[in-house]
Each structure stands twice: as structure tokens, then as C-alpha cells.
Design a protein that fits this description.
Elements: E1 2-8, E2 11-18, E3 20-22, E4 27-28, E5 35-36, H1 41-54, H2 80-84, H3 115-120, H4 140-154, H5 158-167, E6 176-177, E7 191-194, E8 197-200, E9 214-216, H6 218-229, H7 236-242, E10 250-252, E11 258-261, E12 266-270, E13 273-282, E14 285-292, E15 297-303, E16 305-306, H8 312-326
Parallel strand pairs: 7-16
Antiparallel strand pairs: 1-2, 1-15, 3-4, 5-9, 6-9, 7-8, 10-11, 11-12, 12-13, 13-14, 14-15
Helix pairs in contact: 1-4, 1-5
Length: 333
């Protein structure tokens, strides 16, 4: 259940959709259906930070405590760069205390008022995972802090900044901040499988805030991928930082390949080609946006079925493999 778009050299070569956007109302998914994109949100949060960096509002090497002084003492020395690359070691609010599962307190959290601080309150008393900058640990807390930084420096809410400075500028008319108190036309409902039956799997996406609250369509995400690839939003210095290979931000990808985490993006190799991507998962939804820069191949896959049977990233990998095979090693058409 979901939608797909494949673009080569800015030309759509395939798009399609299947399954239900809303089972109860018998509404089918289309390529214009909006889906929660989960952690692909981090690409937009990183870009928003860099837009402010370009305005010389801060240095990326500065500690977050300089701008958010009410943090625990042990967090304050973490730099903006470390938050962007998941190397800060700050405790992860979405993880249980033993780090082996989801934080059960999230299910009982009332999301009103100061949402980011409510999320971080869950882990303020936990110790650091490791010394700042020591190693890579994928970390939603870091991207919550980056959202707070955006608000503090810009004087706008996170949602307003992303809407005005990114979505409006790039004419991404089908993307936005998902507030469950507002109605969003053409937004898919999230589902999961219980046996062979579909079951509603709704969640308040504000529990992921600037780490995973946004929604989009496959075509809007393709527009975003193209904009980032051709520096339509960021200047060349910021773009180089997005795609930088930072030696401390290294981990294995699902295929046991070495992957570097840049600024809101994973940099690796697949099928003999360089790959830049980010995936997303939030209850009821999964997603991936992939860009093969050597071939200018962009794949966006969004799903509203939370299942391991065919997650978006598996489908995107299979489609990329088919494309490379059918176009030979040159992949020029």
C-alpha cells in the first residue's frame, strides 16, 4: 500500500500507487496521496539549520548550550555538527532505558504546550550514551534539539520556518507539518497487519516533532531530491557539508556496507553506484528517498502499511536494481 516515483535526469520514467489510503472510506492511494514521511523529516531539519548557518547566525562547531542554555549540564557541550551527524551521545528519548526497545512513556505523553521540551523531559536524567563526538549513534533527541535551535534563532515556529523557507520556496505544495488538530486533504491513514487483516495504526506524529513530523507526496519528495542535488536551496558550502564524509559518523547499512551519515543524509554505495538516501518509519507508515548522483536517478517510495513484508526501502532497492539491469552499466536512458 503506497506510492512510487522514479525520475531520471529530472524526467519521470515511472510513477504508480496501490492499496488503500483510507480503508474505512474506500479511498485508494494515488501518486498525489500525502503520507507521513517519518525520519526523512531530518533532511529538512538539517537544511533548515544550514539556511540559518548561511546567514552567519551561528557556527556549526559551537556548543548547543550556547543557544539552548536550559539543557542538562552534560548535554551543553555537544556541538551543532555533532547533533547533525548523530555523534552527540545525548540520551535518546524514543528509546527505552536499556536501549533495546521503544520508550514506553511515549504512549502516555500528553502533547500540548512545549512539545520538544516534553519529549526531552523523558531523558533529562539519563547519562550520556558516550562522549560527545566519539561515535555514531542514530539519535532522535539530537534532531529535536536542532528543531529547538531553529526556533530560537529564527524567531519562528519549526513548522512556520520549514513551510516558508523550504516548502514555499521550492513549490512543494503537498508537504507540511502534521498537526492532528487540523484536517489535511488527501492524507493517507496509517495501517498495520494483524494476521491478514488491516488495522488502523494512527499515532500523533508530533511525538517525533522535528525528527519525524512532516508529510509529503512522492512527487514533492522527488522535487526536494532534485533541489538538493542541484543546489537550488543551499549554497555550495552548505551542500558540501550535507554530503561530507565525517570519519566519526560511520555505521553499517542494512546490506553490511559502510555508510557515512552527513547532515540529514546517509551516504553509501549500492549496486556499484554511489547512493544518497534517508528512510523513515513512524507507526503506520514507512518511507524512503534515494538519489543515485552518478545517474541522476531519484526514487521516492511512501507507504501507509507498517509491515516488514515489503517496506519502502526494500521496494526502492529492488526498483533501482531493475533500472540498472535494464539500462546496462551506463544507465543513460
Amino acid at each position: 500500500m503506497g506510492a512510487v516515483s522514479i525520475t531520471v535526469n529530472r524526467r519521470e520514467v515511472f510513477s504508480g500507487a496501490c492499496g488503500w489510503a483510507d480503508v474505512q472510506r474506500s479511498i485508494k492511494n494515488t501518486v498525489d496521496t500525502r503520507f507521513l514521511i517519518g525520519s526523512i523529516t531530518k533532511e529538512f531539519t538539517a537544511a533548515a539549520v544550514l539556511l540559518l548557518y548561511q546567514e552567519k547566525r551561528f557556527e556549526l562547531s559551537e556548543p548547543i548550550g550556547k543557544y539552548l542554555p536550559n539543557l542538562p549540564d552534560s548535554w551543553q557541550a555537544a556541538t551543532i555538527h555533532q547533533l547533525l551527524t548523530h555523534t552527540s551521545g545525548i540520551p535518546i528519548y524514543t528509546a527505552s532505558a536499556d536501549g533495546k526497545g521503544i520508550n514506553p512513556e511515549l504512549d502516555h505523553l500528553v502533547l500540548d504546550g512545549d512539545i520538544p521540551n516534553r519529549l526531552l523531559d523523558l531523558v533529562r536524567n539519563r547519562p550520556l550514551l558516550h562522549v560527545h563526538g566519539e561515535k555514531f549513534t542514530y539519535n532522535n533527541s539530537g534532531y529535536i534539539l536542532l528543531g529547538m535551535l531553529i526556533e530560537r534563532i529564527s524567531g519562528m515556529s519549526y513548522s512556520e520556518f520549514v513551510q516558508k523557507r523550504i516548502f514555499n520556496r521550492l513549490q512543494m505544495r503537498d508537504s507540511g507539518y502534521r498537526d492532528p488538530h487540523t484536517t489535511v486533504p488527501r492524507l493517507a491513514r496509517g495501517y498495520e497487519l494483524e494476521g491478514r487483516e488491516l488495522r488502523s495504526a494512527e499515532v500523533d506524529p508530533r511525538s517525533a516533532w522535528s525528527a519525524g513530523v512532516l508529510y509529503s507526496t512522492v512527487r514533492d519528495l522527488t522535487r526536494w531530491g532534485e533541489a538538493m542535488a542541484h543546489n537550488k536551496l543551499l549554497n555550495s558550502d552548505s551542500a558540501a557539508r550535507v554530503y561530507g564524509l565525517y570519519p566519526e559518523a560511520v555505521a553499517k547499512d542494512p546490506y553490511n556496507q559502510i555508510g557515512h551519515y552527513g547532515y540529514g543524509i546517509v551516504l553509501t554505495e549500492r549496486f556499484g553506484h554511489q547512493l544518497q538516501f534517508h528512510g523513515g518509519g513512524i507507526r503506520g507508515f514507512n518511507s524512503v528517498l534515494q538519489h543515485y548522483p552518478e545517474k541522476n536517478l531519484v526514487l521516492a517510495v511512501l507507504s501507509n502499511l507498517d509491515s516488514d513484508l515489503m517496506p519502502s526501502w526494500t521496494l526502492a532497492d529492488s526498483l533501482a536494481q531493475i533500472w540498472f539491469k535494464s539500462n546496462g552499466r551506463s544507465g543513460n536512458h
